[in-house]
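Annex B. Sample input.
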Amino acid sequence: MGHPYGVHEVSANQGLVCIGDCFDTSRFAVEVIGDWWFFEGLKRYGNAHR
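Annex B, continued. Sample output.
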């Protein structure tokens, strides 16, 4: 069974949802946020320091 986790960027009205089978919810959440940063965040916030 897959478990969804998503990131919603309010200012751009866009989001990313990943489906995974990881039992460790916190690790899965961190991985999804990292994926969002790699695929979307760098494009919009490449100059961000934190």
